Protein: Class II aldolase/adducin family protein
Amino acid sequence: MKHFAQKQHVVDLCLTLSRLGYFAGTGGNIMLRLDAGHVAVTPSAVDYHAMRPADVCVLRLSDLQQVDGDRAPSVEAGLHAGLLRARPDAGCSIHTHQPVASALALLGRAVPVPPRWQATLGPFLPMVGYAPSGTGWLAAKFARAVQPGTQAYLMRNHGILCCGRDSQAALQAVDDLEALARALLADRIAERAATATALADTAGSDALWRVHDALQERNGSPPPHPPHATHQPLQPAPSREGLPAY
Structure:
């Protein structure tokens, strides 16, 4: 079988992603660059625990014509191809519906990347606007979002796509993106909780003053002015101005 080692590597990578919780069932797909003109891509609708090297498809990168493989290629082949055509430095791309990063993609905003993760992810996470899965519309939207030096992309209401110089670098980007998403969403939850607590404290204080005023009025005394609130003002969220949307 031609390209057997690379096809087996795709199967092994799918099993690793499944074990890590980033792939489930038939969800998610991979494209691996074989040479300047050909790529290997996961097949459509095949459970990764049942996949064989012969199921992995080989396509011409230029037009996605299938030249090898027993199955039909993933419907997201065009999504991956748009990235690998635009990024000759990328040797592998991985599309997942991993839980936490996919939740981050639901927010519909590009996200600045803290310095800790920039080496593997790039300076920011572009947000690709929603389009139906497996369509040329989505592939075209994604192709417009591809940036040099950016290894991770959010797709609204869909999931994420990461790339790297090889499969190991792409897998590291997937892992780091999940860690970043977990940290960002935890911060967002903490901010919301602090806001809710501050609002509850303010509402409770106002209610106490209304009771106090009512008692003062009943006793014939004018209500005093309430003291200034001691709560610290809430800090505004970091600005996302200047981050592109696609």
Observations:
- Helices lie at 4-19, 77-86, 99-105, 115-121, 136-145, 167-218.
- The chain has six helices and ten strands.
- The beta strands are 29-33, 38-41, 57-60, 66-68, 92-96, 111-112, 124-125, 127-128, 152-155, 159-164.
- The longest helix spans residues 167-218.
